[in-house]
Specification:
107 residues, 4-stranded antiparallel beta sheet
Length: 107
Amino acid sequence: MRSAALLVGLLLAGSTGCAAAPSIRVTVEGTGTTDQLTYTFPGEQERTLRNPDLPFERLGKRKGRVAIRLEGVHGELTCKIVVNGRQVKTATSHAGAALACDHSMAV
């Protein structure tokens, strides 16, 4: 009887300790262009795109730090980070200024 109660307790503890993987969406949009777009997703190496096509969108599902950086912005661009349908970060840049968005989630 004790072993059954212990087993049930362990199963309940294990099921409540695991959170579902987040749904992450990063976008860059606007009327401008950028010379360079660098982004990092949890568990992945940093990637750099030169003269990327816009709008830009990237999806991910792992907890950790998400970051995006634009350099050489011409015109107006906005980056957004959306986690589980909720916008957690947004930033807008005008011509000439660099643009950065980042957000960290507990692992």
